[in-house]
Amino acid sequence: MTTAPSPEKPVERLHAVLVDLLYRQSRAVLLANLVIPWPVAYVLREAVPGRQLLIWIGAIYVLTAARLLLSRQYFRRGEEDAEPETWARRFTILSVLSSLLWGGVGWIGFVPSEPHLIAFVCIVLTGMSGGALPALSAYPPAYAGLLIAMQLPFALRCLAQEGSIYSVYLAFLLCLVCVYLYYSLNAYRSLKETVSLRFENQALVERLERERDRATAADRAKTRFLAAASHDLRQPIHAASLFTASLAALARRGDIRDVEAKGIADRLEAVISSLGGLLHGLIDVSRLDAGLVPVRRRPISLAQMLCDLREEFMPQALQRGIALRVVPLDVWADSDPVLLKRILDNFLSNALRHAPDGRVLIGCRRRGSAIEILVVDTGPGIPYGQHQAVFEEFVQLDNPQRDREQGLGLGLAIVRRLAGLLGHPIGLRSAPGKGSAFSVRLPMIAPPALTHASPRRSETTGRLRIMVVDDDTQVLAGLATLLAAWGYDSFCGADVEELCRRHQAAGARPVDLIIADYRLERDLTGSEAIARLELYLGYPVPALIITGDTSPERLRELTATGHRVLHKPVAPERLQAAIRETVLDEAAPASPA
């Protein structure tokens, strides 16, 4: 089996294998150099002095020994030895020198008075040239050098003689050289294609093996993921059912006190919030895996971002008794500010959670043309064997009891996906008892030219008017009550026709926002309902779609609508923030009243 160095570039790797073939296939040529000189000398013994023939044979044997030694050194070389091109040049030099000696037969054996010797020499040179063709075709310069060196002396002797027979010999020789070169190039192309095909097959096998390993690992990860998710979903649902049953029992008893009701409601709200956080985390993972998170790169002032993070996390650090230190650097980086901030938020949240009464530092340092942001804490540290595991879903080394107040174990899994999406390498240096240092590396860029920012459009001062379409009557009633409590005017309906009738009955006033469930009756989707409502209104309206679907295919469909999407269960504060942002950022020009 052919063995050769494996350079990184495919062309270099191909060249290395062809040089290896050159050395391996030249063994037959070397054997011919040891055997054939004797019968040639025997035939020429009467026309050429014996001493001259012996010197010729000795010279061929010396060069053959040198070539054998070179071949031995080649096969014993280390990976750090000379490049394949160097070995090919060494082979070619010795091959050309040996061919010149064989070409000497065409000079000393060219005896015009002995035509049969000229014919014999011609046969010998033709046979040696043809015999070397398959062995040296792996490296065309080597074969071309052999052919020219072997045939040139005979051609010169033909040119020096007068007579038509020598012109015939010369013409025959030229045709022979052309034919041999042609077949040599064809053989070279065939070898290249064969070796390239072998590389492709090897690459295909390796790729299939990697895909098999990746599929196996993904299957194991999916099993672990579903088991952990199932546990973490069941717990809050179980707790919520217990609190609901308790509240119902107190209500049936008729003597429920305000303090008891508020306590149970507060606990129920905390459980629902925990459940919503878990579901939103799972949706984020699904969106990232499906490639549905858009990346909007722009220049970012890391000094400003780190200062903003200090203002955001300082109260939490003071509450936990942690000394939070921020070391900003006045540099700019190229990234998505929202996604980068989410990575750093997760790093800081983990650091503050794991370093009570300790110290946390976030800062930057230059790494060539890149900038590295580090979050360092004095927490318990992470064993080296667990460095990869902490970036997996639901992995919490310090929370084996799965206490939801300590997080869900999805933060670093989302960080890993976000970093891969942005192309920012992340790192972890940690050891037990020595704290942890999480890092993310970004491309550094020159500060952008100053521009005058356009003023942000202020929020509408009047009451927002919102259309709501949802075929679930309980959800519809709940949304109507909540929107009224926030001071919004709402028009609600289980389908588009009902909603339009109610809007007409209320005076057909202009609408600022549409909220639609994605799955409606009669296989109507939320985006289709929004389109029908806009057609009814006669102008485009910003819209929100609320859905419980989490499959990658459905997420792609929702992303393609261009509308903002919220996933059930939607926390009230999240819904209110989405309403404000959608109306301010996406609203079309106001329609006439």
TrEMBL record:
The keyword DNA repair does not apply. The chain crosses the membrane at residues 53-70, 91-110, 116-136, 166-183. The modification 4-aspartylphosphate is found at D517. It comes from the Bacteria. Keywords: Kinase, Membrane, Phosphoprotein, Transferase, Transmembrane, Transmembrane helix, Two-component regulatory system. It catalyses: ATP + protein L-histidine = ADP + protein N-phospho-L-histidine. This is histidine kinase.
